[in-house]
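Appendix B. Chain record.
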Amino acid sequence: MAHDVFTNGRSNIHKGSGDKAIAGAPDVCKTPVGPSVVPIPYPNISQSSTLKKSSKSVKINGQPACLKKSTFESSNGDEAGRLGGVISGTTGKETGFMSYSFDVKIEGQNVVRHADSTLHNHRNTMGVVYGSVSTGGPFDDVAGKKYKCAWKNCKGQHTRKVSYDNKGCTVRAAYTGIWKEPWLGGAGKTSSQITLQHYKKENKVKHQATAEALFGTFQYATENHHLIPIKVIEKFEKLAHNAKLLNFDINDGKYGISLPYFITDIFRHDLQSHKTSHKNYSKKVGEQLRLIEKNSLKYCGNNTQYKLTGDLERYAEKLRMRIKGWDEAWLLRNAAVKDRRDSYERAGLPHP
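Structure tokens predicted for this chain:
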């Protein structure tokens, strides 16, 4: 069905819109392979036709609208992983919504739009729902006239005016308050082997470590790491400009990870220490951003501009997994492997 109702410049998702939600990161499910069980990545796709928990009194084109609380009841593509997702323990289950309009509601619920973020197979992976980008109001357009939008590389071939949420202005979040600290997923391991000397060795403020020692505790200090470094994305002016039009926020929790500052604390959640400027990491990220920028310049012509935010979200999630998985090509410090071993040995634990 063609889209003719829009919110914030994006098409509204409803039961009859024919839209799809597609997982950007693999839906990793436990799969029987002979006598073994193997985690295998699968695609995951769900359809708006399976919409549940939708609007009751308000219809769009005669169909119930998709809301913040709504789900696409089922999904497919991961059927072979019948023993369930590695996180959710399910296969082919519902798709929910992580983002939605903040200023437009139906029946008290925020409405879901094209390019909003999704959670697939009962929160086993992430993705995006695809509808279409809006082009402006019918009373603003002139039949037969071509319009140019603010997108870099726009060829001026739009048949309607293109509008952007918040006029293309992004208000950055205070990232220090919204990123998930590692201990929120569990208190972390503790060890009597960790001593004052270990912290003094790394802590520039020696009296701080000494004061904490008097109370028998040491601060679990963390630092926030931008998965896509700000200085790197700013080098790609066209990419940064277009992403800003779509309200891309580098401080959004999707683009960051909280990591331990002290090498001594690595063992607590088996996360890399965040120190130094990690130049090699930034260089490799820049190589991928160059490709993302090149692809994004094509999105304007076929009204798929919001694919850019999906590209950035998927890439950030890949970086998160590489950092958490201690991928040798994506270590933040040259001495990261040694740091990891030292941390576990200090805690009296066998290192991975």
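Further analysis of this model is presented in Appendix C.
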